[in-house]
Structure formats: structure tokens, C-alpha cells
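[Automated response] Your request has been received and processed.

Submitted sequence:
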Amino acid sequence: MITGNENLLQISELNKEYISVFEQHGLGNYFKPENLSKTGRFIRLNTLLTSNNINSEHFINKLNQSLSEKQEVKENDNETLHFSAMLPCGLRNPFKELTESYFEENKALFKDLNYMMEGNVNHELSYYPLLDSITDENELPDVIMASDINNFFHRPFIHRFIENDVFEAVEPFIPNHYLQKEGFADPNKHYTMYTANMLVMVVDKNKLGDRKMPKKWDDILQPEFENSIIMRGENDFFCNAVMLPFYKDHGFEAIKILANNIKSGMHPAEMVKLAGKEDDKGTAIYIMPYFFSKRIKDKNVEVVWPEDGAIASPVFLLVKKDKKEQHKELLNFLFSKKLAELLKQRHFPVIHPEIDHKDLPETVKWLGWDFLNNHYIGKLKEDIQETFMEVWNKK
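Generated structure:
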């Protein structure tokens, strides 16, 4: 009998025909093979249904009605995920390769470690929303690495887990001043602020024409940049890491102007291919991570690190207080100089005190903890997206 505490992989293995039921409710994406083998092992049925406003009792009864008396849910399949990492695209592959190599070299230490390392973009619209419905800390990994201002900063998660001191910051050293001078570390010592994905402007000078080169973020709100900017996004979602700072500085009016000035949304890897090309899909200004901007070698393209700072989209750790000792070897590696050097090679700022940042300009634009703590971030993001899409859809 299905109770709702089963994970999605268990459900799919019990009866393959169940997947069509989930597809009818718009949940088919969670049952794709590549997702089932990863997050499907750890997402509970009740959490998925609650987060999608589906009546759990009615839905589960429907599944049980078609369950044969001979069919039983396999036991001991609810795995504990010890370490999950949802990383920026520019960091995911080398981070995973180095980390898995270290695990392999130290098998005795990590033979029982259950982990998952993925690109953040894969989970921004799938896993993160489920966090608002999780009520049991045992459903969360022991050590979580995540990117951007996501659902880990939303009130449901904060009320259930942050305010109840489930997580405690890891502080192996006095952090490098580069990010800390902007107050990057969590003053309440729950989130461990690890690094940041630095967002900059990339300008195609041919498409810019006789318009003035933007030097600050405010500059791209000028009317002459209407339909002249590309940022990370899709048809119905655009990057919160970009829009939140604009809201902080200028309110919803800036969001409306930005929506009018955005030409399209795409992945940074696509932007790299377009910048400097004659392609009509391209534009004058791209907002992308600094890592991706370094891949562009076209002489007609200029990378602009804004005078008021590159936007620091956070990459952070959440570590369960009562699991820190159990995972001390993992944490020692995550804060090792070896991993810090990898971050620097990928143009990510580092908190390790022995790493310099001579390759990065000094100015950093960070939202700040006062802003994060004094706003209902989840609701604010919804309002920003709604305001943006209202203008965007009229275009």
C-alpha cells in the first residue's frame, strides 16, 4: 500500500503505468529517466503532491486502487542523500570531476557517502520549488550546496529549518576579504557563503552603434536600449539574480523598464556563440557570468565589469549542525586550497585566505543580508516575475 512517504523512484518501479497519471497532472518531468535516477531517489510523493497543490489523499487512493494485492513497495529504498551540489554551469563539470577524483583516491573515507552533483539550471524550476513543501529535515541532505537566491531563502524553509537552527555555518578560517568586505558572510551563521557567480555585461560594439557604452547597471535602463539586452531566461522565466538588484535599487519601475529592454532570454553558452556575430538573434548587450564572458575572443566584443560592481549571485552551503562531525572529511575537502584554486581558475571568487583575486576587479554588487532578511523573498520574486512578464508578454 502506498502511503505517500515513498520516493518517486519507488513509485515508478512499482507500476510503470503510474507515470502516465503523473504526466496528466503536469508532473511528467520528474519521471524522466535522467531525473528518476538522481532526484527521484530522494523526493517523496507527499512533498511532490503538496508542492503542486494536489490533494494527496485523493491522488494516493487512486494509485492504491490500481495496486495489485501481490504488489508491494520495496522497503529500504528511501535513501539518505548526504551531499547534494547544485552548481552554476561554469563550475559544475570541473567541480564534479575533481571531487569525484578525490572521493576515488580516498575510498575508505567516502565509500558510504551518497551524493549528487548537478548544474543549478537543471533544478531551478523543478527541485527548488519542492523545498517550500518539505517539513521533515530528514528529507533534506546533510550537506547542501546551492546557487542563486532560490527557495532556500524563502520563508517556509526559513521558518522550518533556519529559525530552528537545523543548519550551522562552517567557518574553518577567517575568509578572504574579497567578498567579505561587502558583508557576504551570514551574520546569523546559518548559511555558509562559499563563492559567487559574478554577473557582468558583455557589449557587442558593432550592434551598440553610436549609443554610449554602458558603465553602470543603471545605464542599461535607458530608453535607447529598448529590445537590446539578452539575459539568462526562457519564455516564462527570467533570472532572479539579475532582477533582484534592480528591484532593490529602483523598485518595480526598473523591472518594467528592464522587461522592455530585454530582447530575449537564453543560456549563457548560447550568448557566447552569438556575441560579435552578424546573427539577427544577437544584440548589443548580454548579461552573463564572468566565467562565460572570458570565453569570448571577438575583438568587437567588450566585457564590462560595471563600476558599481559585478552582481554576486551566491553559491552557498547548508550543513546540518548535528552532521558536521560525521562529514568533517567532506567539509575539509570543500574548504581545501585545492578546490579554492579550481574556483579561481574558473574566475569565481574564493573565500580561502591564501588565494588572491588579482584577476578580478574589486567592485562587487551584493544584495546584502538586511535585504534578504527583511523581505519575503519568495513572494517578492513572484511579484517581480509577474511585473516583468506583464510587460514582456505585451511585446
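Summary generated for your ticket: The chain has a mean pLDDT of 91. The CA atoms of residues 165 and 190 lie 7 Å apart.
If you did not submit this request, please reply to this message.
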